[in-house]
User: Fold this.
Amino acid sequence: MRPFRYEHVADSGQAVKVAATATGARYLAGGTTLIDLMKLDVMRPTTLIDINALARDHSEIRLDGGQLRLGALARMSDVADSPVVRREFPLIAQSLDLAASPQIRNMASLGGNVLQRTRCTYFRDTSWAACNKRNPGSGCAAMQGENRRLAVLGVSDRCIASYPGDFAVALAALGAAVDLEGPAGRRAIPFEDLHRTPGETPDIETTLKDGELITGFSVPAASWTRRSLYLKIRDRQSYEFALASAAVALDLSGGTVREIRIGLGGVAAKPWRAHDAEAALTGKPITEATAQAAAEIAFTKASAPGELKFKPDLGRRTLVRALLQARAMEV
Amino acid sequence: MEQDPGSARGPSRRGLLAGATGMAALPLAAAAAPSAPSRQPMEARPQMEITLRVNGRDHPLRLDPRTTLLDALREHLHLTGSKKGCDQGQCGACTVHVDGRRVLACLTLAAAVQGRPVTTIEGLAQGETLHPMQAAFIKHDAFQCGYCTPGQIMSAVACVREGRASDDDQIREHMSGNLCRCAAYPKIVAAIREAALQSERA
Assistant:
C-alpha cells in the first residue's frame, strides 16, 4: 500500500475543510472498499480523512414527517435491523440483509456503500493495462474478456462495468434524495443523479464535486413502500454480488397498479430505475403477461456482448418474479 | 511459578521460522548488492502514536498509518490467533470484535480503532476455562487444519449474541462471511447450534 497522511476529523465542517486543503484526499468510513482497493493499488489517496466520528451527528435511522432519514454514517447492519425500516421499507432492509457478510455489514457505512466501486476484474487487477475507468484512454479489456458479472444497461463502448451494490438500487427505485456537504456548502440531489453512466468518461462515476461528502439520505414514505421487496439472484446463496436483482415497490388498488417503482441491480452501469417499465404497468393489473411485457421494455436497450448474452433474459425473469411476489404480498 | 510454555519447550516454531528467514536473506542481499543500482535510504515514513485496547489491556504503539488492525495484532502485539487468509475481506479468518461487533481486521486500519475495545480469540477464554463456543468447536471436531477456526469462533460468538443461531439455515446464512477450505461446515454448524442452546439455557 502506498503511504498516506491520516487525519481524524470531529464533524462534517472540519472534514470538508481538510478535504479542500489536501490534494488526493479520500474520506474513510468503514473502509471495506477503500482499504481493499488501496491494497490492490487501484485507489491511491495521499490523505485519508477518517470521518467515523461523524457518526455522532450522522447516523440517524428515523421516520420523520413522511421521510425516512438515514445518516450516512449509519452502518448497514443497524439499518437492516431497524424495526421501522423492516416494517415500512421492506425492500431497503432486504437489500442490506442480502448484501456482503455480517462482518462487512457491521463495518460499512451507508455513504460508503453507495459509493462502492465496480467488481470488474479488469478494474481491480492492475496487471491489466486496458481499463478506461482506472486508466482513462487505455481501452476496455472486459469487452472481449470475462464479463458475465458486468452490465448490459447504461453501458458505453468505453466501459461495461456494473454497479455492484444492492441498497443503492432500492434508493434509486424509491426516488430518494442524497444530502451533500462540500466546500461550497450544502445541497441535496435526487439519488438517481448521484451516479453517472460511463459515456466517454467511465473514470468519472458520480456527480459529487471535489471534497463533497455524503451526510445522509431521505426516502419518502408512500403508499407503495410497504408492499415492496428486493429480489437478488446470484451464483451463491449468500455473500455474493447480484447477477441480477430487482427492487419493486407497489401500490395496488382493486388489483390494478396505482403506483409502482422499479429498480434493477447487477445488470446496469449505475443503480438503475426502470421508468419505462413503471409507466407500462401503471393502471394495469399485474399478471404474468403484463409483468413480462414490462420486463421486455426494461431491457429493450440492453447490449450483451460475449458472456453477457444470458443476462438480459435473467434480468427479465428476475423482474417478472419480483413483480408477481410483490403482488402476492400481504400488507 | 508462572512459566512461559513456549520457552519451556525451547524455541517456538514462529521464532525458528523468523530466524531462518533472516539468515537466508543475508547471502541473497549480499549477492545482489554489487549489480544493484545505488538505492536511496527509504524515506522516513510518518509514524502515528496509537493506543490499541485489546482484550482489556491498553497497548501504546508507534505505527505507520498503513498498518491494519490485523498486522498490528499479529506483528506488533504478537497476538497471532487472528489469521491472515485472503487479506482482502473475503475469507473471514481475521474476524475480531470491535465495540463488541464482529468486523474484519484486515480491512480495518489500526488508527481507525484507536481507544475502542478490541477482542481477539486470545481474549475469549477465562484463564484456563474455554469459552463455551471454543469448547463446542472441540467437542464437535469443527475444524480440520484449524486455520479459519479463530475467525469462525469469533464470528460464531457474535452470531449467537446477535440472535442469529436459531436454526441451521440461519446459522449458515449468518456465518457466510467465514470460509473453511477444509469444508468442516456441517460440524461448525453443529457446534454453533449447541453453543447457542447452551447460552439460551444460561
Residues 13-32 of chain B form the longest helix (20 residues). The first strand of chain B starts at residue 48 and ends at 54. The CA atoms of residues 165 and 193 of chain B lie 6 Å apart. Confidence is low (pLDDT under 50) at residues 1-11, 19-38 of chain B.
